[in-house]
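Following the same procedure, backbone shapes were mapped to integers, as reproduced here:
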Amino acid sequence: MEEFIPTMVKLRPRAPKISTLIGPQEKPSEGDIGATGEPISDLAAQINNELAKERIVFLLDGTLFFLGKRLYRTNDEFIFRPQDSTKLEHSDLKSLETEWKIHPYFEDGVEEEEEIPTEVLDEDQDIEDLPFDTNIRS
């Protein structure tokens, strides 16, 4: 049995997207920024460009971006609305660091063990020979 659909009923297309997501995502939409997780070079400019288009900007938790010569990571999600925000400056982003909403990012690298010279090991043995309580007052 076939289903009858009147010709007058038409599906309306989706409304245009009015927001932009900035940050790592699994299923990014067209127009989203930084979905792959790569660091964003000028975050303030990206946000200002989207606000100029009258779009709401969502900055996702864990977004990597450069501020000056340092790499930062967001600790929180942020929302920037065109009606609430003026032009975003680098100083505005810097102020978020004092509130611990962003922090410098350091990659966990492979720690290499340094070889300790044998002279240092010999000195440690001398320290072990001392009594635990030496009654030294400063």
Summary: Helices lie at 43-52, 90-98, 118-128. The longest strand covers residues 70-74.
